[in-house]
Amino acid sequence: MKIIGKAVAYCLLGFLVLLVAFNLWGYLTLGNLTPIMPGQLADSANRVVMVFGATGSVGDGLLKAAIEAPEVEKVYVVTRRSSPRIDAGVASGKVEMHLQEDFTDYSELADTLAEVDTVLWGLGTTSIGMDDATYTKIHVDFPLAFVSQWMVARKDINRPMSFHFVTGMGTDPQGSQHWAREKGRTELALAALAEGTNLRSFSYRSGFVRPTSEQSNTAIYIAEKLLRPGKLVITGKQLGEAMLEISARTREVPNGTLIDNGDSIAFAEAYEQR
Ligand SMILES: NC(=O)c1ccc[n+]([C@@H]2O[C@H](COP(=O)([O-])OP(=O)(O)OC[C@H]3O[C@@H](n4cnc5c(N)ncnc54)[C@H](OP(=O)(O)O)[C@@H]3O)[C@@H](O)[C@H]2O)c1
Asked: From atom 6 of ligand 1, which residue's Cα is the shortest distance away?
């Protein structure tokens, strides 16, 4: 009995040490971008927004931000299925849902794509239990196919466009893990595709993205509290707000900028101070 008690105490102590170290690391290293205040915002940068992955934990928050943003007039959701938030958005008239089977072929959406100013991409999934080829298809082929076809569909080549891609903390084109390398490869390829055009592409190396209240529970709220001191957590809605803010700051944040979790928090705060 005594041994079990000791083992539990050591485990708890180890967890606490790790938690403090991780928070300290985040506090000292995250958040390298400081939004200029007041920011110069392009008024119509987010008039029409398209959301991918809206049925997921991250994407539900991105969709919430887009629906609640007064500057967003129309939200297109491209998805395999609906969700309560998509249904409510469609009922309100602000959201239009497109059911998509093949996420590499957007030929049927060309006219819609021509209208879109901003894309919030929360489509993606865990690498656990997934073979490398499928992981690559979802996290490399899908976003690159979309952006290539979006660029062809645009009619006004001078209108600002922005693509916001959620990759995650630990993404690294030279990393030792397949998922990190593949997401890193996509970050670089997206920035290269956009270079010299009116498109800016941003990758968000987010920490823990706390789901919306509808998808959260007590354990999730405890995790949020434990990770907040190190800027290791952001809510999905705040992440969406950071994306809209970065979109609107057309002259401030250049194509290809990697946005860490501290940066996202700072731009979400700038959005909330508008
Ligand atoms: N959650 C976090 O804290 C966090 C933090 C940092 C980065 N990220 C990254 O953010 C991305 C989304 O994570 P999540 O936690 O929101 O995942 P999730 O809850 O599993 O949601 C995944 C979303 O992507 C869609 N999706 C997945 N596979 C698809 C496929 N083959 N074809 C079409 N749609 C597909 C899902 O659509 P269906 O509903 O139709 O399956 C869903 O909308 C991932 O890349 C993840 O690594 C997440």
From this structure: 168
Question: What is the per-residue pLDDT across 188-214, written as a single tens digit (0 to 9) for each?
Answer: 999 999 999 999 999 999 999 999 999
Q: What pTM, to 2 d.p., does this model score?
A: 0.97
pLDDT given for residue 154 in this prediction: 87
Q: What pLDDT digit, counting tens, does each position of 125-164 carry?
A: 999 999 999 999 999 999 999 999 999 998 787 889 999 9
- CATH 3.40.50.720 applies to domain 31-272: yes
155 CA from centroid of ligand 1 (Å): 30
Q: Going by CA atoms, what residue is nearest to atom 11 of ligand 1? A: 124
Determine whether the shortest distance from the Cβ of 123 to ligand 1 is under 6 A. yes
81 Cβ closer than 6 Å to some ligand 1 atom: yes
From the CB of 106, is ligand 1 less than 6 Å away?
A: no
**Can you say whether the dihedral through the CA atoms of 168, 174, 178, 184 is positive or negative?**
positive
Distance CA 64, CA 209 (A): 14
Name the pLDDT band for 3 (thresholds 50, 70, 90): confident
Query: Tell me, what's the pLDDT at 258?
Result: 98
